[in-house]
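Obj.: predict assembly geometry.
Materials: sequence records (below).
Method: joint structure prediction, all chains together.
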Amino acid sequence: MKLYDNNQAPNPRRVRMVLAEKGINDIEMMQIDLSAGGNLTPEFCVKNPFAKVPVLELDNGFCLAETGAICRYLDELYEGTCLYGKTLEERARIDMWDHRMALGLVISVAMGFQHLSGFFKDRMTPIEAWGKESVSNALKVLPILEKQLADNTWVAGSEFSIADITAICAIDFARVIKIRIGDEYPSIQRWYAAMQERPSYKA
Amino acid sequence: MKLYDNNQAPNPRRVRMVLAEKGINDIEMMQIDLSAGGNLTPEFCVKNPFAKVPVLELDNGFCLAETGAICRYLDELYEGTCLYGKTLEERARIDMWDHRMALGLVISVAMGFQHLSGFFKDRMTPIEAWGKESVSNALKVLPILEKQLADNTWVAGSEFSIADITAICAIDFARVIKIRIGDEYPSIQRWYAAMQERPSYKA
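Observations (raw structure tokens):
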């Protein structure tokens, strides 16, 4: 299999962290240069008409896009740490927190970056007011995450899960919009330190 | 179990369509009035700190939020039509298209509505430029969906799936931002007519 990857964007890192957590090392990594428009070429758009990384190309040629779908597929395909939970209710709880981190944090942080930095202004119209609103929306998630991590070891509960991976990729990328986890969030800081201890953090 | 529902918003309809497709009729339906702020009360925010519907309250009191997590949980919990696929690769393909419809269509349509209608202006600042951009982003998905439905009976392939439910809820709600499926999209029209034939369409 081949993974179409980018080493600066937050979503491909979610997949690389899954690979690291599960000890998967038989996937060929292909770097796509987003600033040079490597995701906009006709060849790439055949693989993913939505022109986004990551994309996982299976050995039969099928191209699986969408970070959440790729991570879940890899979790099911490979043995090792289970990132999506075991019982039905545990799976649902992890799924809920993964959605909350993906929809509430990753998207808001990415919108903030795209609309404030002008990084993709060759291919989209940045709207500064929406960029600022997106930063504000991302910040509103932090008190909720703080409460959750005051009551639980990991984002979705007592087990490390895909929700931790989604959250850390959003929070690390949020540095580009000047969001830092300050001392008002001691539980997020405790969790962040635990995440940095994991080998997958460097993925 | 209880479902905190709203009969005008697109996301709760995704859950109601799952209930209808699977023939589930033992869930108590609780209507939350969004325009009156029924989702913003302290009581509701204990159930979902993100203050959104739908929420599925299990019999043990656990509150499951996030539409995608609720639909998947119900699909696994109840017998009947399988909406998330059977083989590993089929599940991944359905998951990909469900993500594409949720992230590419539902969110863009909802943003277009929220930022152009002023419906929630008591609790957010509508940004007209972002509303227009969101409508434009939703429209960009239609040619991709047209090609997919020219090659396949259903959104994710040859099987009816959750991706069809997510897509139809987005497309029907898109009427509020004046998006219609015109004659330039014959395959989407063919699929739309097939969706209307299903009893779950009225959910």
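Conclusions so far: The radius of gyration of chain A is 17 Å.
To do: check interface contacts against the pulldown list.
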